[in-house]
């Protein structure tokens, strides 16, 4: 099986500066002038990773497709940029699984979701995402809990409208702590 467009894009995006300079010459059809311009722009602000982004874009579009590249960029922005609940819901199942590969996951019965699932139970006791109900309450007071990239309060009930691909709900505490609920 081919590497998914998202993982493929991420591989090139995460290459080192020196490697990227070699790779862009070997694996793309950019002219020498275009390559020099990209490298010069990259060297002015290395933290923006202009070289790696261009490399990842060129190769992903060539190997997968322009459409697959757009999906990979959108998927990357979900984890590393500003994205919305709508962006998340547009992901197909495989891309969702690729993006959140390695993120802790718990399974929840569909019956719990269809009746309105208590957020505190979803975050602590039933899933173990957070250690205790008091930790959940603290996090909610800090306004650091999101469901599918949307901030929520303690009264929030998880429901069928929260499902991504009719089976996933993304829980988040702060910017970098993710947890996936799979509804079975």
UniProtKB/TrEMBL annotation:
Belongs to the class-I aminoacyl-tRNA synthetase family. GO terms for biological process: tRNA aminoacylation for protein translation. The keyword ATP-binding applies. GO terms for molecular function: ATP binding; RNA binding; tyrosine-tRNA ligase activity. One of its GO terms (cellular component) is cytosol. This is Tyrosyl-tRNA synthetase (EC). Residues 98-180 form the Tyrosine--tRNA ligase SYY-like C-terminal domain. Gene3D superfamilies: RNA-binding S4 domain (3.10.290.10), Tyrosyl-Transfer RNA Synthetase (1.10.240.10). Transmembrane segments: none annotated. Keywords: Aminoacyl-tRNA synthetase, ATP-binding, Ligase, Nucleotide-binding, Protein biosynthesis, RNA-binding. InterPro entries: aa-tRNA-synth_Ic, S4_RNA-bd_sf, SYY-like_C, Tyr-tRNA-ligase_bac-type. Its EC number is 6.1.1.1. The keyword Transcription does not apply.
């Amino acid at each position: 099986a081919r590497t998914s467009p998202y993982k493929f894009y991420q591989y090139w995006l995460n290459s080192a500066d020196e490697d990227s300079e070699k790779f862009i010459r070997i694996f793309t059809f950019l002219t020498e002038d275009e390559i020099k311009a990209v490298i010069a722009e990259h060297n002015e602000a290395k933290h923006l990773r202009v070289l790696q982004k261009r490399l990842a874009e060129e190769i992903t579009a060539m190997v997968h497709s322009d459409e697959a590249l757009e999906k990979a960029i959108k998927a990357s922005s979900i984890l590393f940029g500003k994205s919305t609940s709508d962006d998340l819901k547009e992901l197909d199942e495989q891309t969702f699984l690729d993006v959140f590969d390695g993120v802790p996951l718990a399974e929840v019965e569909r019956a719990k979701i269809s009746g309105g699932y208590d957020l505190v139970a979803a975050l602590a006791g039933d899933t173990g995402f957070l250690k205790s109900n008091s930790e959940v309450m603290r996090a909610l007071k800090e306004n650091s809990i999101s469901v599918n990239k949307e901030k929520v309060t303690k009264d929030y009930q998880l429901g069928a409208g929260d499902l991504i691909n009719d089976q996933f709900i993304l829980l988040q505490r702060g910017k970098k702590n993710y947890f996936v609920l799979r509804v079975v």
